[in-house]
Structures are given as structure tokens and as C-alpha cells.
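Exercise 7.
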Amino acid sequence: MALEKTKLIDGLSLLCRTGQQLSSIHDLDELLEKIMEVTKEVCDAEASSILLMDEENQELYFKVALGEKGEKVKRIRFSVKEGIAGYVARERKNLIVNDVKNDPRHLKRADEISAFETKSIACVPIIWENNLIGVIQALNKRTKGFNNDDLNYLGILASQAAVAIDNSQNLEKLQNFFVHMIEIIVMAIESITDTPEGHCMNVGRIATSIARRLEISGKTYENIYYAALIHDIGKLKISELSIKGDQFHPILGAEMIKSITLLEKVAPIIEVHHECIDGSGYPKGIKEFSQEGKILALAESYEMWNYEMKQKQIQNHSIYDFVSQKANCFDPVVLQALIKALEEE
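Solution. The predicted structure, written as C-alpha cells, is:
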């Protein structure tokens, strides 16, 4: 009795810790893997799986599958009218089956593809705001059979998973919206201003190539990419592009986006994208600025120089011609990263 009480306390403690961890995970695959790991541990099961619901086709599918057969398992899709998981999804009921091979609802196809023999299942629907998101299941209890404690654990995990999956899916939708809005802004910049068509995307490609050679990743890498795409956004606020007016577009651009939370780290990069380390740049003529700014300044300058060479129909120009003309303007480490990136193309 004391041992069972200890196991119950340990299980609930693990579930509490899991809830806190899930709230900080935004990548859906990583999130589902974490839930699957905890499911195995708390239910003392050989394996676990999460199947998500495809509402349009009324099918369940494995979004994440671990192990050697993982990729094959991820291709398995089946109707909610099939299998034990299908029954749980369709009826929205918790279910324990401790003798799977004698249950007519068992879908043998999944076992055959995964080369995994399912002997027992505890399965619970994942529901959020009365919408079925999927099902979570623990497979093959290591000791005896699954019981109501396992269903309670799975029920708690399913509730945590429902919130986390919904948040993750909403974040994906937001990110998708954000990316498309950036693309629309880029098109506006290139159609309304004097920025050449394709310039912004080319600067983004060059800037991220430099960043990768400098082993920059994560949020900093994203900030460089977005700054490169919309570095000329300030030109949208200049009605007549005089030489003087054009020199202020980096400041105008930074001002336009600095209050946008998702782009607040991008604004300072945009502000310095025409500065040079020898002080010959604009709008402020500063010599000291961020590495991200140095990357964008070089990427923008090289792309524009390359464009002008092509417009003048100058053949056989190379990065070394650019370096001979403008080496003093750019950070030597960043410049070497660009040379290496271009040599490897």
C-alpha cells in the first residue's frame, strides 16, 4: 500500500513538472516527443504514441514517431472508424484493452509496419474546447495490465497536451501570417521604391550565408534574416527619393518597426545597414555597431554592387574586385565569411 502511494505521488509530481515544461516548448514535434516520453515513464509502458486528428479526411495520423521505423510509422493514416484509437476518438471515451490480440478493433497494420507487437493499450482522447485534437496512448504495460491510475495519468497528460498543442498550432498560424506579411512588405518595397526587384531576397540569402559561416543560429539568425528582407522599408516613408532623403531611410525604417514586438530586435540592425567601420557610412557615420549590423551592411553593399556590375554589363567581376574597392568599409571577419560562402557556392 505504501509502495503504491509512493508511485502515485511520484507520478503526479512528474506530471506537474511536465506541465511547466510543456508551456515553454513551442515546436510541435519537440512538444509531442516530450509528452510521449512522459507517458511511457508515468504509465510504466514499453512505448507510447500520439495520433492527431485530420478533420477534413476524418483520419488519425502519427505526427511524431520515434525509433528505426519512425518514418514508416509517420506515413500510417487510418479512419476514425478503424482501430482501438479510432474507437476512442470516435466515442471520445477512455479505454483500456489488456488483451489486444483478441480485440476485434485492433488494427494490425500499424504493428506490421512498425514491427512492434501491441499487447495492451491504455488510450485517452485529447480534447480542447469540445474539439477532438487526437488521442494519446500507452502501449504494453511492463507489469500486470493497465488500470484506472494509468487512465488518470493519461487524462492529465491529455489535458496538458491539448493546451500545449493548441498553443503550438496557433503559434504556427501566427508565424505563417507573419512570414506572408513580410513577403507582402518586400513586394511593396520593390514595387513602390527604387529598390531593384529581387534585391531584398538576395540580401537575405547573402546575409544568412554569412551568418551560417560565423556559426550564428537561433533567434539572432532569424533577426538577421528578417532585417535583410525589410532593410529598405524606410523608403516607403520617403515621397521623393532625394539623395538626402534616401540617406535617412535606415532611421525611418527602424522607427517604423521598433514598436512591433516580433521585430524589436530587428530595428537596430536595419538602422545601421549603411554604416561602415571606417566611419564613411550613413546616416550617422558611426564606426562601432553590432555584428548583426555588420553582416547586413556587407550583404546589402555586395548585392547592390553585384547588381550594378550586371547592369553595366561588366563581365567576370568577382568578390575580389569588390574587396579591392571596399575592404576598409567592412569587418574583416565578416568579409572573410562572405568570401568563403561565395567560394563554396
